[in-house]
From TrEMBL:
Residue spans crossing the bilayer: none
Name the UniProt record assigns to this protein: GFA family protein
Family recorded in the similarity comment: Belongs to the Gfa family.
Record Gene3D superfamilies: glutathione-dependent formaldehyde- activating enzyme (gfa)
Organism this protein belongs to: Roseovarius aquimarinus
Length: 125
């Protein structure tokens, strides 16, 4: 089981099962909300237990973003029409045993950096 929490500890989470799709998102929303890029993985909703009360922001017609209202940590991303939920890799307690698999939304990446590893780079997701 993996565990994680926000910076202040008001919102925590436990991940059961095997996380999938460990990726770095370069989309404009993730860059704006996180201040750079957002690394996440996903599991079926039933495999994620959230403690505390995250706030949810309707980021688009198709998805919402979960964060801690007290410290601002961006922790979750959830598409309305999917039964999975993504969680922030940076909020996990170590060791995670996870390895990044890819970069997504590379067409939207900021102009101030380059992607310099050998992971696959998807234009969208």
């Amino acid at each position: 089981m993996l565990t994680g929490r926000c910076l202040c500890g008001d919102v925590g989470f436990e991940v059961r099962g095997t996380p999938r799709g460990a990726s770095v998102c370069h989309c404009g929303q993730c860059r704006t909300q996180s201040g750079h890029v957002w690394a996440s993985a996903h599991v079926p909703e039933a495999d994620l237990t959230i403690t505390g009360s995250p706030s949810w922001y309707a980021a688009s017609e198709s998805a919402k973003r979960g964060f801690c209202a007290r410290c601002g940590s961006f922790l979750f991303w959830k598409a309305h029409d999917e039964d999975t939920i993504s969680f922030a890799l940076g909020a996990l307690d170590a060791p995670t045993g996870l390895t990044l698999e890819r970069h997504i939304f590379c067409d939207d990446k900021g102009d101030y950096y380059e992607i310099e590893d050998d992971l696959p780079q998807l234009a969208r997701s």
